[in-house]
């Protein structure tokens, strides 16, 4: 079903934007968005601006939120891939940044080598492949490997909760690379992200602040954020607790829908 939306400046709540984490908030972890979620987002978009902010690259977010016929950048007013280091507004790309430029090749190589050595020595039930994934704004590190199946991810998540594999790994990285000004953020079921301090999900807020400075731009005075990893150390924590946002902690996509219905009277 095709929807049409008022221009951003003509929305009833034009100074309000709702930002959403992807995994565990808009979709089940690593799975695709439901028709019910897309419908509620389309109804919300009649009232205010909407955007997603996720650590993955745009290709993964297209897989989860878009379809073969529908580009994800048309489903949201703002798309903040890699925490906003790759960003789109109304389908047009905004200025981007990169981790490799920031850290330099030598230190980057040292960090990756340390991670691979550590994983090689880890005794965990199974390992698959893609243990370190390079992204524009970070590296994503997974002790089991990102090639794990959905069932293997579920099993690993339980194992990790009992054995704190990722927590211990992050502790070692903090000891070894504390001088570099990096943030280590555990998120999703099987991995954690490594990125420069301040390059967490709050990075996307500077794009919204820049909107207010543009000629005829909108000042987003009310920024709602919905996420499931809002605990300290979770990858939604920084933006959830930021004074510029109103944070909403959700337990999954159904809870997100319920919150939106309640907040914006979308029954």
TrEMBL record:
Main location: cytoplasm
SUPFAM superfamilies named among the record's database cross-references: HAD-like
Single GO biological process annotation from the record: protein N-linked glycosylation
Gene it is expressed from: PMM1
A Pfam family annotated for this UniProt entry: PMM
Binding residues annotated for alpha-D-mannose 1-phosphate, in chain numbering: 30, 135, 146, 153, 191, 193
Task performed by this protein: Involved in the synthesis of the GDP-mannose and dolichol-phosphate-mannose required for a number of critical mannosyl transfer reactions.
Keyword Magnesium: yes
Cofactors demanded by this protein: Mg(2+)
Subunit structure: Homodimer.
The protein's Enzyme Commission number: 5.4.2.8
Locations listed in the record: Cytoplasm
Catalysis: reaction(s): alpha-D-mannose 1-phosphate = D-mannose 6-phosphate
Family, per entry: Belongs to the eukaryotic PMM family.
Gene Ontology molecular function: metal ion binding; phosphomannomutase activity
Cellular component terms (Gene Ontology): cytosol
PANTHER family (alphabetical): PHOSPHOMANNOMUTASE (PTHR10466:SF0)
Protein name from the UniProt record: Phosphomannomutase
Binding residues annotated for Mg(2+), in chain numbering: 21, 23, 228, 240, 242, 245
């Amino acid at each position: 079903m095709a929807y049409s939306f008022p221009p951003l400046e003509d929305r009833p709540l034009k100074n309000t934007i709702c930002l959403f984490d992807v995994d565990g908030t808009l979709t089940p972890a690593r799975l695709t968005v439901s028709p019910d979620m897309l419908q509620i987002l389309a109804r919300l978009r009649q009232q205010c601006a909407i955007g997603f902010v996720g650590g993955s690259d745009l290709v993964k977010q297209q897989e989860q939120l878009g379809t073969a016929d529908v580009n994800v950048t048309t489903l949201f007013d703002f798309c903040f891939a890699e925490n906003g280091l790759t960003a789109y507004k109304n389908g047009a790309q905004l200025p981007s940044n990169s981790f490799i430029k920031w850290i330099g090749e030598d230190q980057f190589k040292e960090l990756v080598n340390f991670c691979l050595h550590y994983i090689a020595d880890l005794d965990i039930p199974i390992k698959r492949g893609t243990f370190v994934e390079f992204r524009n704004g970070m590296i994503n590190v997974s002790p089991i490997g990102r090639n794990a199946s959905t069932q293997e991810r579920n099993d690993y998540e339980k194992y990790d909760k009992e054995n704190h594999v990722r927590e211990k790994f992050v502790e070692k990285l903090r000891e070894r690379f504390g001088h570099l000004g990096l943030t280590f953020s555990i998120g999703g079921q099987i991995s954690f992200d490594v990125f420069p301090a301040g390059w967490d999900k709050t990075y996307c807020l500077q794009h919204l602040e820049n909107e207010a400075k543009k000629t005829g731009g909108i000042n987003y005075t009310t920024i709602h954020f919905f996420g499931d990893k809002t605990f300290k150390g979770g990858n939604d924590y920084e933006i959830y607790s930021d004074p510029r946002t109103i944070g909403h902690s959700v337990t999954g996509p159904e809870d997100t829908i319920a919150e939106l219905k309640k907040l914006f009277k979308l029954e």
